[in-house]
Write a structure and sequence with these properties.
Length: 175
């Protein structure tokens, strides 16, 4: 996929993926119990941004199998036919840390790539950097065509190697 195509696709789908990532990551706000587990959900092509299918608890090994078996191209073609709603997305939530990591596919059957997003709490200063810091849900989104990088990033996420994950996605996806 050439650089211009990637940029165009990134701009088109960035908003929809951002909305879906943020909406699906607030599942445990009403509970005071923090569970040391990972859960996941699926957004099929053309789902409304607020709709996703909860799949329950997951481990890295099981997630990688689900990732490999997910009908990415079929879902991508469905999205391209309808051109409405979100693109196919798999999301994992770390219930212990309140962070999320997700992957979406964009493009078409011949030229495609992955958007990966990391959603985490971040302290942000108020207007123009003044005032008291507030914690907000922050999302960073990166684009790649390398499926192995996506898998590597999920392994770091599941292993809670946060600093290494941030360094990896910042370095690899900046290229």
């Amino acid at each position: 996929m050439n650089r211009l195509s990637i940029k165009k696709l990134n701009v088109i789908l960035l908003t929809s993926v951002f909305i879906s990532a943020c909406s699906s990551s607030t599942n445990n706000k009403n509970t005071n119990i923090v569970e040391d587990k990972f859960t996941w959900n699926v957004q099929l092509a053309s789902y409304d941004y607020s709709k996703y299918d909860e799949k329950g608890e997951i481990t890295l090994e099981k997630f990688l199998v689900e990732f490999e078996n997910f009908p990415w191209i079929e879902q991508l073609e469905k999205y391209n036919e309808i051109k409405k709603g979100c693109s196919p997305t798999l999301s994992v939530k770390d219930n212990k840390t309140g962070t999320d990591f997700w992957v979406s596919m964009l493009g078409d059957k011949d030229e495609n790539g992955y958007l990966v997003g990391y959603v985490y709490p971040k302290k942000v200063k108020g207007f123009l950097g003044f005032g008291k810091s507030k914690e907000k849900r922050w999302v960073e989104i990166y684009l790649t065509q390398d499926v192995e990088i996506v898998k590597q990033c999920f392994a770091l996420f599941f292993n809670r190697e946060t600093e290494k994950l941030i360094t990896t996605i910042s370095f690899i996806f900046a290229l």
